[in-house]
aminobutyraldehyde dehydrogenase
Amino acid sequence: MAIPMPSRQLFIDGEWREPILKNRIPIVNPATQDVIGDIPGATKEDVEVAVNAARRAFSRNKGKDWAKAPGALRAKYLRAIAAKVTERKSHLATLESLDSGKPLDETLWDMEDVAGCFEFYADLAEGLDAKQKAPVSLPMESFKSYVLKQPLGVVGLITPWNYPLLMAVWKVAPSLAAGCTAVLKPSELASVTCLELADICREVGLPPGVLNVLTGYGSEAGAPLASHPNVDKIAFTGSFATGSKVMTAAAQLVKPVSMELGGKSPLIVFDDVDLDKAAEWALFGCFWTNGQICSATSRLLVHENIASEFMEKLVKWSKNIKVSDPFEEGCRLGPVVSEGQYEKILKFISTAKSEGATILHGGSRPEHLKKGFFIEPTIITDVTTSMQIWREEVFGPVLCVKTFSSEDEAIELANDSHYGLGAAVISNDAERCDRISQDFEAGIVWINCSQPCFTQAPWGGVKRSGFGRELGEWGLDNYLSVKQVTLYTSNDPWGWYKPPC
């Protein structure tokens, strides 16, 4: 699609700034493999400037301009940003599809969610003032106590490429609503719409330095941001390996972090279900977002009584998925984001085959697509629990399948993972679904579906999927510190020490 990519600089202190080392990073369209533009490449020198800008914005006018301003003022800016996102929805979605390879229908949906997220946190920002000085019940009448919730300060936000703008906004919106100032470092693989968000912030007059956007490589921009002594918190979404490095850097300064580190989520299908409905959810749970979703239910557990028929259904449904350029009408699976990701996924599939698994469907490039990082929707059977494909996150359109014979076995297989982000069960037995949702070792559970996500509900995992919660009121709490204030109300002296003569 011949739409020019905007040529942007870094967004620091409310204005566009060329990187100090003048680095640029090429933008590759994953559907064509063509270079279609470039983005600025920030380094530690730019991080220093951006963090200082955020610090000034936080403390400007003793905090009265932002951090200590009424929540209604911050809400006004968040709503203005939401309105501009809605106004630019089509253009933003187009840029994101070009940049990331996601089907246009998905990116249009994502932009609606971006605007909705800003609106939601605008409401919470307005309500924050009324919740200040919440009283604490004490056992002694001579004391009164209350709680203040205050912004943490300057926050570093490091975000992934699978939902380039939406995942960024999951952090930007609540952090700004809380009164923090922020430095956003999106993934270098898909940053274009985050720079457009910066342009929207400039257009609506967001105070300089409140949001700064640095595009660049993780080692050159993300790492110095995570370790910067004037950054008060890091919120990170990405791989376990990178998250571990971010935590290590933050730990040197005992800096708080919140982490969403992906997963290898299970989906259990019992033998009392509508097979077609269950098949569609099983595929959607793994192939949505081109299979590049942290919560993908990529470990499918099927009751042995229906396994053979269910596999046939899965293959038929998979063959009906339109794999194409993201802009073709009806596209439901586009290319993966980069050549590196493409090669990594094919290596996972090759290793599974060499370990004895069966590639039931897919497993390679679609025959009709000669260019681009396309991989067919892939279903792998005859999998053992020791295989790499069962244990490690693929982050691509690859579904692996095992059978089970009892509820206890299904739960044991589902929880046998280092990860614990999402988990799903499909069954017509409501009591069974309730039992299993309590037994799942996961931060998110879906019943008779997979992957729905709402701004109002908490999002996050357990085990190696990270800690902390985004979205909902929990997302706002991520960026607030709780201060206890206690006052002595009696006119009597304390009387602990004997008074001097």
